[in-house]
Amino acid sequence: MKNNLKWSIALILLISTACSSVKQAKTGSESKTTALQINSRTVTPGTPGFYNAIYVENKGTRLLSGNRFSEDNGLTWSKYTYQPDFHGGLPYGYRRNRITSVRDPLTGRIITIVNSLDTPGLNPGINEPKLALSTYYLRYTVSNDAGKTWLFDDPIVQTGNYTFQNPFEGINIGKNSIYLGDLGCIPIVTKKGKILVPAHTTLAGPDGELLNPGGGHTYTDVMVLTGTWTDGNKLSWKASQRVEGDPKRSTRGMIEPTLTELEDGRILMVMRGSNGGKLDPKDQLPSYKWYGISEDGGEKWSNPQPWCFEDGEPFFSPSSMSSLFKHSSGRCFWIGNMTKINCQNNLPRWPLVIAEVNTSNLKLIRSSPLTVDTQREEDLTKGRLDISHMTLIEDRETKEIILTYPRNTNTYKTTEWITVRFSVKIK
After folding, report:
1. Residue 247: what are its φ and ψ, rounded to 5°?
2. Which residue segment(s) compose the domain that 201 sits in?
3. Residue 133 region, left (φ>0) first, then alpha (ψ -120 to 50), else beta?
């Protein structure tokens, strides 16, 4: 009852924010201060084909999106079956969840990262089982023929004295885990041809029990895995240094990293943090996104700091995923939840905002945020609104950015799907 009252008070405060945000959403497409213009917004009952899609070739319009395939740049979609089916016939309770993919433009290969569980008897209907925090591990699969066939499905294990059970330093499957958090954890291919996979890992204490120094829902560090091509279309793997949060500033550590490489070779990483939990029961810590920079190709990272605008002012954002996206024009964008008041742990997951990154100082351009979606008056009768879990892709023919996301109400019980197309101003 106390938590409901707390959230109701916050909701009243946020309604005024929603009204101003709706105005921005209506006028933002005409703003001279943003690089983006909203061209269209489509609502569908089912998942759009462009959701989490990639182009499977360096040129052309063939797309792959989960179990769907398009030959005509997304105008029509047909059923897609993975060949061979590495995931068929697994023991009951085992899981293989293809999270994100990237096409290496230098080799033409597609790499898909798979969150995996080898847990006999685990009910497959349980979403985010607690057991996964100590047993998740990563696999990867590669196609060298534009997704027609897949060559293998292997665990990701660092080269050297490491094993399937101990794939990286400090990770022992069964005691702690490594996994991708959400759809923003997209691998990138650097100019030097390295495959960088942003992941996070839970922590285990000397007694083998999971550590949770912040007292939140979970606690994780971030690691970036570097893959280097070897003979046979496979990758040799190496882990970066851990990117560690301070539980006194982010009670869930660092979560769900997203990456982009800049023209000068620096790599920007933006991470989800959180307030709340046992160390912050009144949600008094500032709810920030956090960022780090690598100047050596993703092996070493600066200590995470609150991400901010160019003038140094940070912004509020709930504990939710976000995504960095680089357009062919050279402009770089960030999309995520941005609020005007401090958040409460994961909430509210609205408004959804897209903003431009200054590629010199790697901060957000103050005049650039454009509200894409937010709570409206008609939403107030539908239960809690959550706008997250979005994906972005550039249309090869129109050069538009295509944003797709589920718009969830009534605590994820009701969903409609949104597709928004943006045109990008050329510098």
Report:
1. -60, -15
2. 82-256
3. alpha
Q: Is residue 87 part of a domain?
A: yes
Each residue's pLDDT tens digit, 169-213:
999 999 999 999 999 999 999 999 999 999 999 999 988 899 999
Asked if the structure places residue 99 within a domain, the reply is yes
The domain total for the chain is 1
Average pLDDT over residues 305-319: 97
Within a domain: residue 350? no
Does a structural domain hold residue 181?
Answer: yes
pLDDT tens for 32-54 read 457 999 999 999 999 999 999 99
Q: How far is CA 158 from CA 38, 135, 232, 240, in A?
A: 43, 17, 17, 11
Q: What is the pLDDT of residues 127-174, one digit of tens each?
A: 999 999 999 999 999 999 999 999 999 999 999 999 999 999 999 999
